[in-house]
Design goal:
Pfam families: Glyco_tranf_2_3. Belongs to the glycosyltransferase 2 family. This is Glycosyl transferase family 2. It is built from ten helices and twelve strands. The strands form two sheets. Strands 1, 2, 3, 4, 5, 6, 7, 10, 11 and 12 form a ten-stranded mixed beta sheet that branches. Strands 8-9 form a two-stranded antiparallel ribbon. The chain has 305 residues and is of the alpha/beta class. The chain has helices spanning 13-25, 47-54, 68-81, 101-106, 188-194, 206-216, 242-259, 262-278, 281-291, 298-304; strands at residues 2-9, 33-40, 59-62, 87-91, 95-97, 115-124, 143-145, 148-151, 156-159, 174-175, 183-187, 220-231.
Length: 305
Protein backbone atom coordinates (compact mmCIF):
# COMPACT_ATOMS: atom_id res chain seq x y z
CA UNK A 1 0.00 0.00 0.00
CA UNK A 2 1.27 3.46 -0.93
CA UNK A 3 -0.41 6.01 1.34
CA UNK A 4 -0.37 9.74 0.63
CA UNK A 5 -1.20 11.82 3.71
CA UNK A 6 -2.58 15.28 2.89
CA UNK A 7 -2.73 17.94 5.63
CA UNK A 8 -4.07 21.47 5.19
CA UNK A 9 -2.69 24.26 7.38
CA UNK A 10 -4.18 27.72 7.84
CA UNK A 11 -2.69 29.84 10.62
CA UNK A 12 -2.35 26.89 13.02
CA UNK A 13 1.38 26.11 13.10
CA UNK A 14 1.28 24.81 16.69
CA UNK A 15 -1.42 22.25 15.97
CA UNK A 16 0.10 21.29 12.63
CA UNK A 17 3.56 20.74 14.10
CA UNK A 18 2.07 18.62 16.90
CA UNK A 19 0.20 16.54 14.29
CA UNK A 20 3.32 16.07 12.16
CA UNK A 21 5.28 15.03 15.24
CA UNK A 22 2.84 12.20 15.95
CA UNK A 23 3.02 11.12 12.30
CA UNK A 24 6.80 11.00 12.51
CA UNK A 25 6.70 8.93 15.70
CA UNK A 26 4.18 6.38 14.40
CA UNK A 27 5.27 2.90 13.33
CA UNK A 28 5.36 2.25 9.59
CA UNK A 29 4.61 -1.45 9.11
CA UNK A 30 6.14 -3.60 6.42
CA UNK A 31 4.06 -3.36 3.26
CA UNK A 32 3.17 0.31 3.75
CA UNK A 33 4.88 3.33 2.22
CA UNK A 34 3.83 6.74 3.59
CA UNK A 35 4.48 10.16 2.11
CA UNK A 36 3.14 13.40 3.59
CA UNK A 37 2.11 16.49 1.65
CA UNK A 38 1.30 19.62 3.61
CA UNK A 39 -0.55 22.50 1.96
CA UNK A 40 -0.42 25.94 3.54
CA UNK A 41 -3.63 27.73 2.61
CA UNK A 42 -2.17 31.27 2.39
CA UNK A 43 -1.55 31.64 6.13
CA UNK A 44 -0.97 35.18 7.34
CA UNK A 45 1.25 34.17 10.27
CA UNK A 46 4.66 32.47 10.43
CA UNK A 47 3.26 28.99 9.73
CA UNK A 48 5.42 28.26 6.69
CA UNK A 49 8.73 29.21 8.31
CA UNK A 50 7.96 27.29 11.49
CA UNK A 51 6.88 24.12 9.69
CA UNK A 52 9.87 24.24 7.32
CA UNK A 53 12.28 24.58 10.24
CA UNK A 54 10.75 21.68 12.18
CA UNK A 55 9.99 19.29 9.30
CA UNK A 56 12.23 20.02 6.30
CA UNK A 57 11.55 16.53 4.95
CA UNK A 58 7.80 17.17 4.50
CA UNK A 59 6.71 18.32 1.07
CA UNK A 60 5.21 21.78 1.59
CA UNK A 61 3.02 23.54 -0.95
CA UNK A 62 2.22 27.23 -0.42
CA UNK A 63 -1.11 28.45 -1.80
CA UNK A 64 -1.15 32.11 -2.81
CA UNK A 65 -4.79 32.49 -1.78
CA UNK A 66 -7.01 30.76 0.77
CA UNK A 67 -8.86 28.16 -1.27
CA UNK A 68 -10.98 26.82 1.56
CA UNK A 69 -11.08 23.28 2.89
CA UNK A 70 -12.11 21.76 -0.43
CA UNK A 71 -9.78 23.71 -2.69
CA UNK A 72 -6.82 23.56 -0.34
CA UNK A 73 -7.08 19.80 0.06
CA UNK A 74 -7.52 19.38 -3.68
CA UNK A 75 -4.16 21.06 -4.23
CA UNK A 76 -2.59 18.49 -1.91
CA UNK A 77 -4.44 15.56 -3.48
CA UNK A 78 -3.35 16.55 -7.00
CA UNK A 79 0.28 16.82 -5.90
CA UNK A 80 0.10 13.51 -4.02
CA UNK A 81 -1.38 11.71 -7.03
CA UNK A 82 1.81 12.45 -8.96
CA UNK A 83 3.53 9.82 -6.76
CA UNK A 84 0.92 7.23 -7.78
CA UNK A 85 -0.40 6.30 -4.32
CA UNK A 86 -2.93 3.52 -3.82
CA UNK A 87 -4.72 5.49 -1.08
CA UNK A 88 -5.13 9.11 0.06
CA UNK A 89 -5.56 10.08 3.71
CA UNK A 90 -7.05 13.52 4.36
CA UNK A 91 -6.06 14.52 7.88
CA UNK A 92 -6.93 17.66 9.85
CA UNK A 93 -3.93 19.49 11.29
CA UNK A 94 -5.53 19.58 14.74
CA UNK A 95 -5.49 15.80 15.11
CA UNK A 96 -3.09 13.48 16.90
CA UNK A 97 -2.40 9.84 16.07
CA UNK A 98 -0.82 7.07 18.13
CA UNK A 99 2.04 4.74 17.28
CA UNK A 100 -0.21 2.03 15.83
CA UNK A 101 -2.24 4.30 13.54
CA UNK A 102 -0.60 3.16 10.29
CA UNK A 103 -0.60 -0.48 11.40
CA UNK A 104 -4.37 -0.20 11.84
CA UNK A 105 -4.79 1.41 8.42
CA UNK A 106 -2.85 -1.37 6.70
CA UNK A 107 -5.18 -3.97 8.23
CA UNK A 108 -8.40 -1.95 8.08
CA UNK A 109 -11.65 -2.33 6.13
CA UNK A 110 -10.01 -0.54 3.20
CA UNK A 111 -8.58 -3.95 2.23
CA UNK A 112 -12.11 -4.89 1.12
CA UNK A 113 -12.21 -4.00 -2.60
CA UNK A 114 -15.83 -2.80 -2.31
CA UNK A 115 -14.93 -0.24 0.36
CA UNK A 116 -13.98 3.12 -1.13
CA UNK A 117 -13.74 5.32 1.97
CA UNK A 118 -13.02 4.55 5.62
CA UNK A 119 -13.72 6.87 8.56
CA UNK A 120 -12.06 6.08 11.91
CA UNK A 121 -13.01 6.32 15.57
CA UNK A 122 -12.18 9.89 16.55
CA UNK A 123 -11.97 10.99 20.17
CA UNK A 124 -11.87 14.49 21.59
CA UNK A 125 -8.31 15.34 22.53
CA UNK A 126 -8.05 15.80 26.28
CA UNK A 127 -9.33 19.22 27.28
CA UNK A 128 -11.26 19.80 24.05
CA UNK A 129 -14.50 18.06 25.01
CA UNK A 130 -17.78 19.93 24.50
CA UNK A 131 -18.75 19.32 28.16
CA UNK A 132 -16.93 19.15 31.49
CA UNK A 133 -18.93 16.21 32.88
CA UNK A 134 -16.36 13.44 32.51
CA UNK A 135 -14.25 11.68 35.10
CA UNK A 136 -10.50 12.14 34.78
CA UNK A 137 -10.01 8.54 33.64
CA UNK A 138 -12.59 9.03 30.86
CA UNK A 139 -10.71 11.87 29.16
CA UNK A 140 -9.19 10.77 25.89
CA UNK A 141 -11.99 8.22 25.42
CA UNK A 142 -14.84 10.69 24.76
CA UNK A 143 -16.09 10.18 21.21
CA UNK A 144 -16.23 13.03 18.71
CA UNK A 145 -17.09 10.84 15.71
CA UNK A 146 -17.89 7.17 15.21
CA UNK A 147 -19.30 7.38 11.71
CA UNK A 148 -21.83 9.90 10.48
CA UNK A 149 -25.55 10.19 9.83
CA UNK A 150 -27.37 12.43 7.36
CA UNK A 151 -30.71 13.86 8.45
CA UNK A 152 -32.32 14.04 5.01
CA UNK A 153 -35.43 15.81 6.29
CA UNK A 154 -33.38 18.78 7.48
CA UNK A 155 -30.20 18.35 5.40
CA UNK A 156 -27.69 18.12 8.21
CA UNK A 157 -24.84 15.73 8.80
CA UNK A 158 -24.09 14.73 12.38
CA UNK A 159 -21.30 12.68 13.90
CA UNK A 160 -22.53 9.42 15.37
CA UNK A 161 -22.13 8.67 19.11
CA UNK A 162 -20.73 12.13 19.87
CA UNK A 163 -20.04 12.68 23.62
CA UNK A 164 -20.20 8.95 24.44
CA UNK A 165 -17.37 7.46 26.46
CA UNK A 166 -15.71 4.49 24.78
CA UNK A 167 -16.32 1.52 27.09
CA UNK A 168 -15.44 -1.07 24.46
CA UNK A 169 -18.75 -0.79 22.59
CA UNK A 170 -17.13 0.16 19.29
CA UNK A 171 -15.94 -3.12 17.84
CA UNK A 172 -17.90 -3.58 14.61
CA UNK A 173 -17.05 -2.28 11.17
CA UNK A 174 -20.26 -0.65 9.92
CA UNK A 175 -21.49 1.14 6.83
CA UNK A 176 -22.02 4.83 7.48
CA UNK A 177 -23.73 7.73 5.70
CA UNK A 178 -20.57 9.80 5.30
CA UNK A 179 -16.93 10.05 6.27
CA UNK A 180 -15.81 13.17 8.12
CA UNK A 181 -13.21 15.31 6.41
CA UNK A 182 -11.25 15.44 9.69
CA UNK A 183 -9.82 12.03 8.76
CA UNK A 184 -10.88 10.34 5.56
CA UNK A 185 -9.07 7.31 4.08
CA UNK A 186 -9.84 7.16 0.36
CA UNK A 187 -9.07 4.48 -2.19
CA UNK A 188 -7.31 5.95 -5.23
CA UNK A 189 -9.88 4.44 -7.62
CA UNK A 190 -12.63 6.50 -5.96
CA UNK A 191 -10.90 9.75 -6.88
CA UNK A 192 -10.16 8.45 -10.37
CA UNK A 193 -13.87 7.70 -10.81
CA UNK A 194 -15.67 10.62 -9.14
CA UNK A 195 -13.06 13.37 -9.01
CA UNK A 196 -11.91 15.64 -6.19
CA UNK A 197 -13.72 17.53 -3.44
CA UNK A 198 -16.31 19.98 -4.76
CA UNK A 199 -14.75 23.45 -4.54
CA UNK A 200 -18.15 25.14 -4.83
CA UNK A 201 -18.58 24.34 -1.13
CA UNK A 202 -15.35 26.02 0.03
CA UNK A 203 -16.08 25.22 3.69
CA UNK A 204 -18.58 22.82 5.34
CA UNK A 205 -20.54 19.88 3.88
CA UNK A 206 -17.90 19.09 1.25
CA UNK A 207 -17.29 15.76 3.01
CA UNK A 208 -21.02 14.91 2.81
CA UNK A 209 -21.06 15.77 -0.87
CA UNK A 210 -17.94 13.74 -1.66
CA UNK A 211 -19.36 10.79 0.28
CA UNK A 212 -22.64 10.96 -1.62
CA UNK A 213 -20.88 10.94 -4.98
CA UNK A 214 -18.85 7.92 -3.89
CA UNK A 215 -21.94 6.04 -2.69
CA UNK A 216 -23.84 6.78 -5.89
CA UNK A 217 -20.87 5.48 -7.85
CA UNK A 218 -21.23 2.15 -6.02
CA UNK A 219 -18.59 2.45 -3.29
CA UNK A 220 -19.13 1.50 0.34
CA UNK A 221 -18.25 4.00 3.08
CA UNK A 222 -17.50 2.36 6.40
CA UNK A 223 -16.67 3.24 9.99
CA UNK A 224 -13.70 1.20 11.22
CA UNK A 225 -13.07 1.57 14.98
CA UNK A 226 -9.69 -0.15 14.77
CA UNK A 227 -8.28 3.16 13.44
CA UNK A 228 -8.17 5.73 16.24
CA UNK A 229 -7.08 9.34 16.63
CA UNK A 230 -7.73 12.43 18.74
CA UNK A 231 -9.16 15.76 17.58
CA UNK A 232 -8.58 19.18 19.11
CA UNK A 233 -12.08 20.29 18.21
CA UNK A 234 -12.07 23.96 17.24
CA UNK A 235 -14.77 26.39 18.23
CA UNK A 236 -13.41 29.25 16.08
CA UNK A 237 -16.14 29.13 13.44
CA UNK A 238 -18.76 27.40 15.54
CA UNK A 239 -22.52 27.47 15.52
CA UNK A 240 -23.85 31.00 15.66
CA UNK A 241 -20.94 32.72 13.96
CA UNK A 242 -21.52 34.64 10.74
CA UNK A 243 -19.06 32.38 8.95
CA UNK A 244 -21.03 29.31 10.00
CA UNK A 245 -24.35 30.99 9.16
CA UNK A 246 -23.23 31.83 5.65
CA UNK A 247 -21.60 28.58 4.53
CA UNK A 248 -24.04 26.20 6.24
CA UNK A 249 -27.04 28.08 4.81
CA UNK A 250 -25.66 28.26 1.28
CA UNK A 251 -24.17 24.75 1.22
CA UNK A 252 -27.32 23.11 2.59
CA UNK A 253 -29.10 24.52 -0.46
CA UNK A 254 -26.30 23.36 -2.74
CA UNK A 255 -26.27 19.86 -1.26
CA UNK A 256 -29.97 19.41 -0.61
CA UNK A 257 -31.25 20.58 -3.99
CA UNK A 258 -28.95 18.07 -5.64
CA UNK A 259 -29.26 15.00 -3.40
CA UNK A 260 -32.27 15.27 -1.06
CA UNK A 261 -35.77 13.87 -1.71
CA UNK A 262 -38.25 16.12 -3.53
CA UNK A 263 -40.21 16.92 -0.36
CA UNK A 264 -37.04 18.16 1.33
CA UNK A 265 -36.07 20.21 -1.72
CA UNK A 266 -39.39 22.06 -1.54
CA UNK A 267 -38.92 22.65 2.19
CA UNK A 268 -35.43 24.05 1.54
CA UNK A 269 -36.79 26.49 -1.01
CA UNK A 270 -39.48 27.68 1.41
CA UNK A 271 -36.84 28.10 4.10
CA UNK A 272 -34.62 30.06 1.69
CA UNK A 273 -37.44 32.53 1.03
CA UNK A 274 -37.91 32.98 4.80
CA UNK A 275 -34.17 33.61 5.21
CA UNK A 276 -34.24 36.25 2.48
CA UNK A 277 -36.95 38.13 4.34
CA UNK A 278 -36.38 37.39 8.03
CA UNK A 279 -32.92 35.80 8.21
CA UNK A 280 -29.74 37.07 9.79
CA UNK A 281 -27.48 39.12 7.49
CA UNK A 282 -25.18 36.20 6.69
CA UNK A 283 -28.16 33.95 5.89
CA UNK A 284 -29.66 36.56 3.55
CA UNK A 285 -26.33 36.89 1.75
CA UNK A 286 -25.95 33.11 1.55
CA UNK A 287 -29.34 32.61 -0.11
CA UNK A 288 -28.76 35.50 -2.53
CA UNK A 289 -25.34 34.10 -3.45
CA UNK A 290 -26.77 30.64 -4.05
CA UNK A 291 -29.42 31.87 -6.45
CA UNK A 292 -26.93 34.12 -8.28
CA UNK A 293 -24.37 31.28 -8.51
CA UNK A 294 -21.78 32.97 -6.30
CA UNK A 295 -20.23 29.77 -4.98
CA UNK A 296 -16.78 28.85 -3.71
CA UNK A 297 -15.60 31.74 -1.51
CA UNK A 298 -18.85 33.60 -2.23
CA UNK A 299 -19.37 37.31 -1.68
CA UNK A 300 -19.61 37.06 2.13
CA UNK A 301 -16.04 35.91 2.71
CA UNK A 302 -14.70 38.60 0.43
CA UNK A 303 -16.07 41.22 2.82
CA UNK A 304 -14.66 39.46 5.88
CA UNK A 305 -11.01 39.18 4.77
Amino acid sequence: MRLAVVILNYNTPGDTIACLKTLKQAKIPKGLYVETTLVDNASTDDSVDLIKSKFPEVRLIENITNQGFAGGNNVGIKAALEENPTHILLLNPDTLIDQNFFVSILNSAITNPKVGIVTPLIYFAKGYEFHQKYAKNELGRVVWSAGGRIDWANVYGTNAHVDEVDQGQFEKIEDTDFATGACMLIRRQVIDQIGLLNQNYFLYLEDLEFSQRAKRAGWRIVFDPSIKLWHKVSQSSGIGSSLNDYFITRNRLLFGLRYAPLRTKLALLREAIRFLIFGRPAQKTAVADFFTFKLGRGSFLGRQT
